[in-house]
Design goal:
Blueprint (H helix, E strand, L loop, with lengths): L2 H14 L13 H13 L5 H13 L7 E4 L11 E6 L2 E7 L10 E5 L2 E2 H7 L1 H4 L10 H6 L2 E6 L2 E6 L12 E6 L2 E6 L5 H10 L1 H4 L4 E5 L8 H4 L3 H4 L11 E5 L1 H16 L6 H12 L4 E4 L3 H6 L10 E6 L6 H9 L5 E5 L8 E9 L4 E10 L17 E2 L11 H12 L1
Parallel strand pairs: 9-10, 10-13, 13-14, 14-17
Antiparallel strand pairs: 1-16, 2-3, 3-4, 4-5, 4-6, 6-7, 8-9, 11-12, 11-16, 15-16
């Protein structure tokens, strides 16, 4: 299969196997983007890098970050400039540094390729994926740029950008005590074994602490079954937890791709995941039936949320990096009367979820796409693009780079009762 045929297969998946294909019919422009690929191919200029850029541009039309083409080759092109930024007023501020040693946390960027930040924002809005400055995503623009202009103590310096492999962030689950409150930090909900170990290690604290703060600002997703272990503490005794429900698109391709993923996931667990087992049963029962509402009533009856008296109060801290399963956790947890949500709206990538992976081994790619559709879409209550709003909004400012404004606010809320 050549790259043109690979593009055609991606279009076929987006038109038939992607859970949003009916809602978003006519949004995409496959002929336009295939024409670009054909022109490059005709002139022997269709490199892997250009192919990935054009496919990424094609997928932007669907406005769903669950759909991604990824290289699985060792020589995959770099995907990071070694740092991350946020837009505030006229400038970009570096809010995380990975590999780039010439850049420090808090570095102010005034220009990209000698063009002012707000000018670029107006011209490249499609690639920023938001009209709200603090919710913009500048990664793709920085990757295509050659230089940035940074300012320090009134002096401007031109810096040539370097490229790096995007650092793989391992699952990192932490709990610490702050002023008598337990502070949890989760960067994903992927590692069931780590979650079980964390909760077992701190069992005595969990059962005796009056206040929790759960930081999911950087929680990029994973499996709902991992965060399910937290819900007993988050909810009051004998709780009622409702879900919006969703339709799963059970095409033959989705059956094959999802079952392959489930089997791999179960193989790395110390013991089988009961929710995944229930999911696999539903996949078998509904194979090839199109959109289906799965029945998890038996699983829910066997694994009820009991709730607990302690903690008395739980504060969730959210931000735009909290996505997918991280957002489902927020939707579930905020149903508890104990919970207050603070921070900034989440990423907004949950209306279409439950990713499947199509492997193109010969071409060295994998294509990830969403296979389920939330029922809230039909009630005009979708959260994609805009995210889940907090109960208390805290605007992001450069002050966040000097101290943890959000957690300090949470601790003050607890002190104030």
């Amino acid at each position: 299969m050549g790259l043109l045929h690979l593009f055609d297969t991606i279009v076929e998946i987006m038109h038939h196997d992607y859970a949003g294909h009916k809602d978003k019919e006519g949004w995409d422009r496959p002929d336009y983007f295939r024409g670009k690929l054909e022109e490059l191919d005709k002139n022997d200029q269709l490199t892997r890098n250009r192919f990935e850029q054009i496919v990424g541009d094609y997928l932007l039309d669907f406005q769903d970050e669950h759909n991604v083409l990824r290289s699985i080759l060792d020589e995959a092109p770099p995907t990071s400039v070694g740092f991350r930024v946020r837009h505030y007023e006229e400038y970009l501020f570096v809010d995380r540094v990975d590999q780039e040693s010439r850049i420090q946390l808090g570095t102010i960027i005034t220009e990209i390729d000698k063009v002012r930040i707000n000018v670029i924002a107006d011209e490249m809005r499609r690639y920023l994926k938001s009209t709200v400055p603090e919710r913009e995503w500048w990664e793709s623009i920085l990757l295509e740029a050659k230089t940035i202009t940074i300012e320090k103590d009134g002096t401007k310096t031109l810096v040539e950008l370097s490229h790096y492999d995007n650092p793989r962030q391992p699952s990192n689950y932490v709990v610490e005590e702050k002023e008598g409150t337990l502070l949890f930090r989760f960067n994903d909900f992927i590692d069931l074994n780590q979650m079980k170990s964390l909760l077992e290690t701190h069992k005595d604290q969990l059962n005796s602490t009056y206040n929790w703060i759960i930081d999911v600002r950087e929680c990029r997703g994973g499996s709902d079954s991992v965060y399910h272990l937290l819900l007993d503490g988050i909810f009051q005794p004998n709780p009622t937890l409702t879900h919006d429900g969703m339709l799963h698109l059970c095409t033959e391709r989705n059956y094959h791709n999802r079952m392959t993923t489930f089997k791999k996931f179960n193989n790395i667990l110390e013991s089988p995941d009961l929710f995944i087992a229930a999911f696999m049963i539903q996949m078998d029962v509904n194979r090839g039936k199109g959109f289906v509402q799965f029945d998890f009533s038996e699983f829910n009856e066997d694994n009820p949320i009991k709730g607990s008296e302690l903690p008395k109060r739980v504060i969730l801290v959210i931000d735009k990096f909290c996505g997918s399963s991280g957002e489902q956790f927020v939707l579930d947890a905020k149903q508890s009367t104990k919970v207050t949500v603070i921070g900034r709206p989440t990423k907004g990538v949950l209306d279409y979820s439950n990713q499947a992976v199509e492997i193109f081994k010969h071409e060295g790619y994998e294509f990830v796409y969403a296979t389920s559709r939330s029922n809230r879409i039909d009630r005009n209550e979708g959260i994609d693009f805009n995210g889940i709003n907090p109960d208390i909004y805290i605007k992001w400012t450069p002050e966040h780079l000097r101290k943890d404004v959000d957690v300090e606010y949470a601790l003050q809320l607890i002190k104030n009762g």
